[in-house]
Design brief:
The structure holds 2 protein chains of 2 kinds.
Chain A: E1 4-13, E2 32-36, E3 39-47, H1 48-51, H2 55-59, H3 63-81, E4 85-88, E5 94-95, H4 98-107, H5 109-119, E6 122-131, H6 149-180, E7 187-190, H7 196-199, E8 204-214, H8 218-231, E9 235-243
Antiparallel strand pairs in A: 1-3, 1-4, 1-5, 2-3, 6-8, 6-9, 7-8
Chain B: E1 14-17, E2 26-27, H1 32-41, H2 54-76, H3 86-110
Antiparallel strand pairs in B: 1-2
The chains are: A alpha+beta, B mainly alpha.
């Protein structure tokens, strides 16, 4: 018999029997709910051969493994979010037993309840803005010949100046879009910009924002984003959601 | 078993590319970078019984590997302007240099004490 642990996906409240009947946990294990005074932990069994302290550091080096677990984790959190208010845990939060999970729910009760209150009836929306205007490159686009050292230096200065102006403009667009979208939201935060190699887009990402938006404002929020994308012709605005409130259900 | 959603359904995230026509938008699986950004960097961090230092892993290996995977994908799509951008390539260059140095030291070790010189 291999040892098992309890993988905690999320903490929630108000789930009833059967809510998660059509969702499975990791590696096909059934989802279970560990309850403590109204707080519920959504868990499933995991083998410690795969999720134990020895195996985890090795498995986390394997991107295919990480992707599988991350997608399953997200699927479960998403399923819980569609039925109740959810506070998602970070990947691979694992306990030895249900007693241990309940101990955590007890210890953090106040903070967990506050986190759930904060995200109740809200979804997380991701807004990424890319600059579609061409940034002046290191070589002059015109074919004009450089005739002297002074002319060369002048051209370098002009290019640097053009780049600075372009950078300032890009920063302004990002600020304006971020602020304009804050109107209908409960909270907003700016995440790290993704490298083009991560985003898969050649354009430079100038804003990577997450907003906590009440479900009944999500249409107004999307409409605002659409208006903004018409206003800024040199920016591409990508809106994605709703996500479970990963970026907002933190403990304080 | 009947299920009655009590809050508005949270469907799979979909991407709306606003510069495209509305007909082209629709449900699409979320991109891995976006999922990892949330399930690894965000989410509630509480101590489990299984101790694993995610910080080491998430900041180094996962991100580096993610970059490498995406680089291949980007190259397939013909996007490679960043290859010549020193700002983006310093990390890769540093790793390459380190690798080269380590390889040289290993070769020196394997060829004996190292002071016998190359034959």
């Amino acid at each position: 018999v291999t040892a098992t642990g309890r993988y905690l996906f999320a903490v929630t409240r108000g789930l009833v029997d059967g809510d998660l009947a059509d969702v499975t946990g990791l590696r096909g294990a059934p989802l279970e709910v560990v309850e403590r005074d109204g707080l519920q932990g959504v868990v499933c069994d995991v083998s410690l051969d795969e999720f134990g302290e020895e195996a985890l550091p090795r498995n986390l080096e394997d991107l295919a493994w990480v992707e599988e677990v991350a997608r399953s984790h997200d699927d479960v959190v998403r399923a819980v979010a569609s039925r109740a208010t959810v506070a998602p845990m970070r990947l691979v939060t694992i306990y030895a037993s249900d007693t241990s999970v309940q101990g955590q729910l007890d210890d953090l009760r106040g903070k967990l309840l506050a986190a759930l209150d904060r995200v109740e009836d809200c979804g997380e929306w991701s807004v990424k803005v890319y600059s579609t205007s061409a940034v002046p490159g290191p070589t002059a686009p015109t074919g004009e010949k450089v005739t002297s050292g002074a002319a060369y230096l002048q051209r370098k200065r002009d290019q640097a100046e053009a780049r600075r102006t372009a950078d300032d403009h890009v920063v302004q667009v990002a600020e304006q879009v971020y602020a304009a979208l804050s109107e209908y939201v409960t909270a907003g935060r700016r995440l790290a910009l993704q490298d083009p190699r991560l985003s898969g887009r050649a354009e430079m990402m100038i804003l990577n924002a997450a907003y906590l938006v009440p479900h009944n404002s999500s249409e107004a929020f999307q409409a605002t984003a659409e208006t903004l994308s018409e206003r800024y012709s040199d920016a591409a605005i990508e809106v994605q959601g709703p996500w479970p409130p990963y970026s907002f259900a933190m403990l304080e | 078993m009947t299920q009655t959603p009590r809050s508005p359904a949270t469907s799979r995230p979909y991407t709306t590319s606003l510069e495209q026509s509305p007909t082209s938008s629709g449900p699409a699986p979320a991109n891995l970078a976006d999922i990892l950004e949330r399930v690894l960097d965000k989410g509630i961090i509480i101590a489990g019984d299984i101790k694993v230092n995610l910080l080491d892993i998430e900041l180094l290996t996962i991100k580096i590997r993610l970059l490498i995977v995406s680089v291949d994908k980007a190259q397939e799509m013909g996007i490679d302007w960043w290859r010549n951008d020193p700002m983006l390539n310093t990390g890769a260059q540093k790793l390459a240099d380190e690798n080269k140095e380590l390889k040289e030291r290993l070769e020196a070790l394997e060829s004996g004490s190292g002071d016998r010189g190359s034959s």
